[in-house]
Amino acid sequence: MMRGGAEIPFPYRSHANDYHDHFARTLGHALLSKWRSFKVKRNPGEICISPLKSPDIRPLGPEDIPLIFLTRNSLRFLRSFLLHYRTLGVTRFLCIDDRSTDGTREFLLEESDVDLFGSDIRYREANGGRSWREAIVQLYGTNRWYLNVDCDEYFIYHQYETKRLPQFIAGLEAAGITHCPAPMIDCYPGDAITSAVFDGSSDVMPWEIANMFDVEGYRLLRTGSGMIMSGGPRARVLNNPDIHDELMKYPLVYVEGEITFGVSIHKPWPFTRNFSPIMGSLLHFKFFDQTEKLVREAIADNQYYRGSRSYKNMLEAIKKGQLDYLRSEISNEFRNSQQLAELGFFKTVF
Hints:
Layout: E1 6-8, H1 22-31, E2 49-51, E3 66-71, H2 75-88, E4 92-97, H3 104-109, E5 114-119, H4 130-140, E6 144-148, E7 153-157, H5 165-174, E8 179-187, E9 212-214, E10 219-222, E11 227-230, H6 232-238, E12 248-255, E13 280-285, H7 291-301, H8 305-319, E14 331-333, H9 337-343
Parallel strand pairs: 3-4, 3-6, 4-5, 8-13
Antiparallel strand pairs: 1-10, 2-5, 6-12, 7-13, 8-12, 9-14, 10-11
Helix pairs in contact: 7-8
Protein name: Glycosyltransferase family 2 protein
Organism: Phyllobacterium salinisoli
GO molecular function: transferase activity
């Protein structure tokens, strides 16, 4: 459910560079003194991740750009996912596999730039994966940039097609940005979902199949701990404000403390850094021909937030035929990053 806060027009109405946010600066001064005293409840003795390739942990070099991700039966995404992020400039993938059974683990074991881990607990016991992310940061170190995404999320920013992550990060640093907000933009096929086949067997990218997105209908709020967003096709079609998924994430952050991801992937710590202008988006892919099958599997696995409530609501919508066709009068076909910048989905660094 969306909570109260100061509302921001989104997509942005002005596309000029703007790195100054009075609200963020004011809040930052008010909360800065609380940063070092912040405590996170955790039981480190109960969390264990184990490397699956070698007992030795390969340290990161100063020029490495690491990406943390969690997997559970994500084989159909892995080929395009790794290709996308390697092209952006990611040099190491730090992955925890949550007991996949579809070949995900076997695939990743063959990838030389993937450090693969297993765990003695499941996703829900790991606080929705947050404890795993903390464990990864403890192993590989702080005072560096990390990407932190899911397998069905593809981070993009203005000119990502030609400007690699080191250049983008340099632009963020020049602007004083250390937490890069990026909302999830749900993409969907223009025709029936049942005809949208994406099995990951080729180099086809998911946005070539699910190539549509909503150009309006989003709600962006500033709260005391960060920005939150709702909207998109699920909110539009399901038409129930109580089951809107929270779309805002911070996929690229400069990590100085081990609890950065331990609070929430939607609100990394310290909160004072969560109010920068939106500089990117996460193209998010839930809608293909196997959506119903995957939703049913997620419900049966029972590892997700509030008893997998979001997936249960999606299943009800599927049964009613509400997700058969998601295209509407506010749909647009995704072309490139320049298009999203012009539409106001993110501001420009370059």
